[in-house]
Amino acid sequence: MSTPTSIFRQYEQEAYATYETITGITLQRNTDGSFKSQGTNDVLDAYRHAYVSAVMTKDHGEFIAFVAGAAHEIRGDLFNGQKSEPRRMDDWNNSVGREIGAAASSRESIAQDVHSALQSGELITDPAIDKRQLPSAYSEYRDDNTLSNAINTFFLQFKNWTPPRRDPLAL
């Protein structure tokens, strides 16, 4: 059975494979031949985010790609202590990827278009230098982490919750 994590991992593996093919750069692999997770706040990270969002848009539509990307970033915020600059970079590159995926005719065109976006500077590859950000209806909450804190508190309250057990034969 596929889980959201395994589905994301499949898209991520595909992104690494296309990056390796297009650039000719050999990426690190695990002993089983799969690609190791690699690329943080760099060119590969930018490509991976845009590519995964583009392919997910092509496969499932922009809304699902948006929700999946946002959930992935929130997970990074909550469990990996992701800082705001890398998050801004990822959100930007996910958005560019969704635009590419919405217009794409094939996975091959997605790979080429994401690579072109990378080469033309459309993707953010260094969040410490490139300060572009998406316009947000909730930008007033992002500065002081109010929204993130509210989501985090809500999640932590329910993450270990299990429904009460009841005897199914009892009325």
Describe it.
With 171 residues, the protein is an all-alpha fold. 63% of the residues lie in helices and 0% in strands. The chain has seven helices and no strands. Helix 1 (4-23) crosses helix 2 (43-60) and helix 2 runs antiparallel to helix 5 (107-120). The longest helix has 20 residues, at 4-23. The two termini are 34 Å apart. Residues 137-143 have low confidence and may be disordered.
List the helices and strands and how they pair.
Layout: H1 4-23, H2 43-60, H3 62-80, H4 84-103, H5 107-120, H6 139-142, H7 146-158
Query: What are the segments in which pLDDT stays under 50 over at least 5 consecutive residues?
Result: 137-143
- Tally of extended strands? 0
Categorize the overall geometry: globular
Tell me roughly what share of residues is in helical segments: 55-70%
Q: Could you tell me how far the N terminus lies from the C terminus, measured between alpha carbons in angstroms?
A: 34 Å
Along the chain, the helix and strand elements come as HHHHHHH
